[in-house]
Design brief:
This protein is of the alpha+beta class. It is built from 3 helices and 7 strands. It comes from Dietzia natronolimnaea.
Length: about 150
């Protein structure tokens, strides 16, 4: 069964600075506790990552997956191409300039696992993923641009 989570954070930086951090997928290993390794396998003509291999590990589950990114003005999304333990992963960051030097960041994630985990573990993992995706991103943006 697919599970979804949404998290929202305000970051004291502009949309371009946040998009720069999101596009630097290699740095995920520095600010996302779940990411163990990342490799860009395909990028577009402007250098935006399109196909990315990732090794992630959390709550006793390690997975290697390939995701496909789509980049838009103030938005990035990705979807699962292949994975050992997931059937589905769809995620999206939507960035909205607040007009005061801050940006509203909305993170949405839908995951459907191939393996069965106890409900409390799934809920704890969801909260952790959402926290890393927003608070971890905020901390990295402020570290670079704060």
């Amino acid at each position: 069964m697919a599970v979804s989570v949404q998290s929202v954070v305000t970051i004291e930086a502009g949309v371009p600075e946040i998009m720069e951090v999101l596009a630097d997928v290699d740095s995920l290993v520095d600010w996302s506790s779940a990411h163990r390794a990342v490799e860009v396998r395909e990028a577009d003509d402007e250098g935006w990552p399109i196909v990315v291999w990732e090794r992630v590990s959390q709550y006793g589950v390690t997975d290697e997956m390939v995701v496909r990114y789509e980049w838009y003005d103030g938005e990035v999304s990705w979807s699962l191409v292949e994975s050992g333990s997931q059937k589905v992963q769809n995620a999206r960051y939507e960035l909205t300039d607040n007009g005061d030097g801050t940006t509203k960041v909305v993170f949405d994630l839908e995951v459907d696992l191939k393996i069965k985990l106890p409900g409390p573990v799934v809920k704890k993992a969801q909260k952790h993923i959402a926290d890393v995706a927003t608070t971890g991103l905020r901390n990295e943006v402020l570290r670079r641009h704060g």
